[in-house]
Amino acid sequence: MRVVIAEDNALLREGLVLLLRSAGHEVAAVAATGPEVLPLLLAHRPDAAVLDVRLPPGFRDEGLRAALAARERLPELPVLVLSQYVEQTYAAELLGGGARGVGYLLKDRVGRVDDFLDALDRVVAGGTVLDPEVVTELMSRQRRGDPLGALTPREHEVLRLMAEGHDNATIAAALVITERSVHKHIGNVFLKLGLPPTDTGHRRVRAVLAYLNA
């Protein structure tokens, strides 16, 4: 896997390079500022991009903007965005439009090597991955009357695991239920969130977006 990294913190940037290389991946290029990112992605056309949300010169959302711009030019580019904090607006914008092959992780997750590499693999495979802490924070912000209010506790658990990017088999194992039960719960989630069967390809992503838009 060829990866482009954008991270302004030199220590974390070099740590990512070493981590990815030790896992057998190729680091095609590294960037330390926002303006560097898009030209590098277009030049190298990597298998994945790992980008910090906030980069110089403004330390606002330069990394996210570069990711969104890159996906306009390279729609199939898998992007894994790293953030220091849970920033709901950034997560919603990244996942907007039924996006596939995207992930949003807190930087602490990088230190959990297996979790980070697993998330990267799932994003490259076309999955959508949200950091468990991001999901927990978003769930805590739910208000009465939001679309998720009709879900049962079990359906909430299933949706939370879906939001973390897990497939049905993994969800079944985590909740100690059958895959058939998982399939039924997911069907109920789709029904209660008003996601029609004709939108099969994006319903999982749109269900995750319900967290962000609640």
User: Strands of the largest sheet, in order across it?
Assistant: 2-1-3-4-5-6
Bin the strand percentage.
5-15%
Please work out how many helical segments DSSP would assign.
Answer: 10
Global structural class: alpha/beta
* DSSP strand tally: 6
- Fraction of residues in H or I helices: 40-55%
Low-pLDDT windows of residues: none
Main beta-sheet annotation? 6 strands, parallel
Order of helices and strands: EHEHEHEHEHEHHHHH
Shape call: globular
Overall average pLDDT? 82
Q: What Rg do the Cα atoms give?
A: 17 Å
- The end-to-end span amounts to 36 Å
Summarize this structure as a short list of keywords or feature phrases.
LuxR C-terminal-related transcriptional regulator; WalR-like; six-stranded parallel beta sheet; DNA-binding; about 210 residues; about 50% helix; transcription regulation; alpha/beta
